Amino acid sequence: METELVNKKLTTLYIVHHCLACPAGTLGAFQMVQRQNAINFNARDPTGRVWEFKLCTRIVGPHKKPVIRSGWMGYVREKGATVDDFIILTMVEDAENGVSFHLHVCFNYCNSGFIDKRVIINLSSSIISLWVLLGTKAVAVFLL
């Protein structure tokens, strides 16, 4: 079963401060013991690469405010994610393999919409456009 933990639009804040704020409800998905304020976890991207991140919370105060810190900026740079792209973190629970996390970027291309699939075919007017995800960015191929 797949559960969406984070679906966030990237803002300048998430890039300048080198962290991604997560909803407080996501803490239940991680095996943090009481009084622990950080945990390392691995997440797989759509290419199969495994990334190591650290989820941190506040030490004091009534609100935990979880954020992903360590590993975050490397992921952003490698994927070419920018302001207005979306970051999606999911948790997959599998009887055979246990719990795993998956992270991917949905790139925002102005009027083209969000690209989160490897290949998207768009049949509009008399032009067929084929969107192919190459590396970290989508490329449009137009067939007449």
Descriptors:
144 residues; mainly beta; At1g16640 B3 domain; eight-stranded mixed sheet; three-stranded antiparallel sheet; 2 helices; 11 strands; 9% helix; 48% strand; disordered C terminus; DNA binding; transmembrane helix; transcription; transcription regulation
Tell me what the structure shows.
There is one protein chain. The protein is mostly beta strands and 144 residues long. It has two domains: 2-108, DNA-binding pseudobarrel domain (At1g16640 B3 domain, Beta Barrel); 115-144, no CATH class. 9% of the residues lie in helices and 48% in strands. It has two helices and eleven strands; from the N terminus they run E-H-E-E-E-E-H-E-E-E-E-E-E. It has helices spanning 12-16, 72-79, and strands at residues 2-9, 20-21, 38-44, 50-56, 67-68, 86-94, 98-108, 114-115, 119-124, 127-134, 137-143. Strands 1, 2, 3, 4, 5, 6, 7 and 8 form an eight-stranded mixed beta sheet that branches. Strands 9-10-11 form a three-stranded antiparallel beta sheet, with no helix packed on it. A hairpin with a 5-residue loop joins strand 3 and strand 4 (50-56). The longest helix has 8 residues, at 72-79. The chain is globular and about 35 Å long. The termini are far apart. The model is unreliable at 115-136 and 138-144 (pLDDT under 50). One of its GO terms (molecular function) is DNA binding. Keywords: DNA-binding, Membrane, Nucleus, Transcription, Transcription regulation, Transmembrane, Transmembrane helix. The chain crosses the membrane at residues 119-143. One of its GO terms (cellular component) is nucleus.
